[in-house]
From TrEMBL:
GO molecular function list: ABC-type transporter activity
Lineage: superkingdom: Bacteria
Keyword Nucleotidyltransferase tagged: no
Transmembrane segments: 18-35, 103-126, 147-175, 203-224, 231-251, 279-301
GO cellular component: plasma membrane
Taxonomy of the source species: Bacteria, Bacillati, Bacillota, Bacilli, Bacillales
Name listed for the protein in its UniProt record: ABC-2 type transport system permease protein
């Protein structure tokens, strides 16, 4: 616990850590301001005549459009779903704002990679690794404390994203109930879900991706002594993940690639990236990669000779 506390102190003593949270807060605030002013989010009001409002909106959207264009217009499809199922649309509020902001978890992955890829490599760069290793604790405990610190940062940043999104959304868009029912596009059509269920699902899957990316970056940090190289290589892998998948997508063994399985949302919103993939399969693949990353981190860190560093 003392080692973990020491790592947390070192992490939050850096200005770069607080800059990450400031950047995230500015982006959340900027999205809310733009949505309220330019995008008119939260400005629509559905009263007792909501059916007439939706029908008029459909008429305006489909005017001058051919049948093929109408078939692909998601707004018209969503309006028809409300009309066919006799559901009054919910005004855009804090809950939908929080759900929309879950996309910012990709930015959190970048921040977590920067922290994870440097947390071990920085010790070699700054020459402080010897100060750690002369303590009467094993290298395994030192490494474990660093990894726990990375996980705590990932969890803290995700909670910050959730809470600041809720606070900003409540101020700009208001709160329509404690747990309203929302209509969302599932890929195969529209479905009704509770707001809390959707938030738990989207942010939970984001946490899975954060954990996997942090484990990958942590392994790279344990292998390389150069923090810049470790951070750069880890960010490159994250950014190039989709390109790598696009290149190997034609092969059957592509489903075993890490980046094909990190997005568990593909089983709930859309179709699996590769035919035959299932949620249990992806979970097993992620567990194997996770164990491999941690074992390699432990092997390189515990066996490395630092006497001549």
């Amino acid at each position: 616990m003392n080692l973990v506390y020491n790592e947390q102190v070192k992490l939050y003593a850096r200005k770069s850590t607080w800059i990450m949270f400031v950047i995230l807060a500015v982006i959340i605030l900027g999205i809310a301001i733009l949505g309220k002013t330019v995008g008119d989010l939260g400005n629509e009001e559905y009263g007792e005549d909501w059916r007439q409002q939706l029908e008029q909106e459909n008429a305006e959207l489909t005017e001058g459009m051919d049948e093929e264009q109408i078939a692909y217009d998601q707004v018209v499809k969503e309006n028809n779903y409300y009309l066919e199922n006799d559901i009054k649309p919910q005004n855009y509020d804090v809950w939908q704002s929080v759900i929309d902001n879950s996309m910012l978890s990709a930015l959190l992955s970048l921040f977590t990679i920067i922290v994870a890829a440097g947390i071990v490599a920085h010790e070699f760069r700054w020459g402080t690794i010897k100060l750690l290793l002369i303590r009467p604790v094993s290298r395994t405990k030192i490494l474990f404390s660093k990894y726990v610190s990375v996980l705590l940062f990932a969890l803290t940043s995700l909670v910050f994203l959730l809470l600041f999104s809720w606070l900003t959304g409540a101020v700009f868009f208001g709160v329509n109930g404690i747990n309203p029912t929302l209509v969302l596009n599932s890929g195969d059509g529209f479905v009704q879900v509770s707001a809390l269920h959707e938030i738990t699902r989207s942010y939970g899957f984001s946490l899975v991706n954060l954990v996997m990316m942090s484990a990958l970056a942590f392994m790279i940090s344990s292998i390389f002594r150069n923090s810049g190289l470790a951070i750069g290589f880890a960010i490159f892998l994250m950014m190039a993940g989709s390109s790598i998948m696009g290149f190997f997508l034609q092969y059957d063994w592509a489903k075993f690639i890490l980046f094909a399985n990190t997005n568990l949302d593909q089983y709930y919103r859309g179709t699996p990236l590769i035919e035959g993939m299932t949620l249990p399969f992806s979970v097993m693949v992620l567990l194997v990669y996770y164990l491999v990353f941690l074992v390699l981190s432990w092997v390189f860190f515990t066996k490395r000779d630092v006497a001549g560093h």
